[in-house]
Amino acid sequence: MTEIPEDTRTTSVGTVARAVLPAADRPSPPQVKRPRENRLRALDGLRLIAALMVAAYHYGGRGGEVTQAWGSSPAVQFPTLHSWFAYGCLGVQVFFVISGFVICMSGWGRPLRSFFASRASRLLPSYWAAIVIVTVVFALPVVAYRTVSPSDTLVNLTMMQQPLGADRVLGVCWTLWAEVRFYALFALCVVMPGATRQRVIMFCAGWTLAAVLTQAANEPLLDLVVMPEYAPFFIGGIGLYLVHRDRHDAYAWGIVIVSWLIGQNQAVRGLWHAPNPDFFSYRTTFGIVLVVTFGFVAVAVIALGWLNWANWRWLTVAGALTYPFYLVHEHLGWVVIEAYHQKLDIPAYATLPLTVLTMLTLAWLLNRFVEDPLTPRMRSLLNNPKR
Q1: What is residue 32's DSSP assignment?
Q2: Contact 31, 21 (CB under 8 A)
């Protein structure tokens, strides 16, 4: 940089003021505001709890291919706990409430391109890596689980495999398809025109009404777009972010309460069945409502700031591991369970935590060697496409 000669430099107004005015009349220097701490570490911890709930369901709360991994039904392996593990599938609904909160927070005041770059760079690197890892592991001769065709594997890289009718590489990716649709709705209706309290409230009200009408219409295309079975959870999370901004906002609390009332009913409709010995597990109506209520209340407590004291850095690490853990835990967990329990003869109650620990270790590796280097590069590339 070329140095400006002393006699040609422009003198600032502040310099003139200090030279001419008495000390009492000099303007005070501008106050630099410290950046607000936006990281809600308790929310990161809740993410991990929700992920572990889903893992408990996949490892011990359902039948299907995990039975092959254990060598017998999880109901035999966990005669008491399997009925509790069955409620773990509701961790997905807890995730959706968290997602509504986080997406509203991250999309507020952000331009559309930045919002898209943030979401794409957050989801895709670990997702692509998980697709590759699961495909390679399932293709190994020593692994007995069916692999997906090469064509369907390639389609899975787009996250559009479900509407296209392709086989899924990752069993949990159906939730990502719901998330993507939510992101699209929120981006079009809130982020693109600019997030304001009134616009967010109208979005929540409009989506709630559309979901109720869609439920009554029984129209497949509307079901696909409006997602009446999941909408209350996303909307409830958005309402809780409005509560986070202003705990006295009556409209925000109204959104949360209506979403909880509708959401618990949607969860019961989807997960409850009459007692039947042919079903793996039986979930009571009360139990389903209780877990849904836990999700709303837990996010509400965080939104109100009552857990701000839980500011430990390890919670941020836990939050960072949640997404890659969620991606890989199910299918690769089957392989690990079979190796530990059947080949190494480790008891079921030890195999379960060892499998979770193994998947968390893999999640750390994905976060360290995939997300850390690729996420910022992808975000920068998408934010500045014409360098």
Answers
A1: P
A2: no
Mean pLDDT of 299-322: 95
**In angstroms, what is the C-alpha Rg of the chain?**
25
Report yes or no: 115 and 187 within 8 Å, Cβ to Cβ: yes
- 3-state percent breakdown (helix, strand, coil) of the chain, nearest 5: 70, 0, 30
Burial class (CB within 10 angstroms; exposed 0-12, middle 13-18, buried 19+) of 310: middle
Would you state the structure tokens that stand for residue 291, as one six-digit string?
């877990």
- The 3-class SS string of 238-275 reads HHHHHHHHCCCCHHHHHHHHHHHHHHHHHHHHHHCCCC
Q: Is the dihedral of CA 239, 241, 245, 246 positive or negative?
A: positive
CA nearest to 57, candidates 108, 99, 91: 91
Q: How many other CB atoms are found less than 10 A from the CB of residue 346?
A: 16
pTM metric for this prediction: 0.88
Which tokens in the block code for residue 86?
Answer: 């069955």
Using the CB atoms, write b or e for 234-272: b if 16+ within 10 Å: bbbbbbbbbbbeeeebebbbebbebbbebbbebbbeebe
Rounded to whole angstroms, the Cα distance separating 118 from 319 reads 16
- Name the DSSP letter for residue 276: -
Sign (positive or negative) of CA dihedral 94, 95, 100, 105 = positive
Residues 6+ apart with CB under 8 A from 134: 169, 170, 328, 331, 332
29-82: pLDDT as tens digits: 444 333 344 568 999 999 999 999 999 999 999 988 999 999 999 999 999 999
For residue 329, what are its two tokens? 């835990």
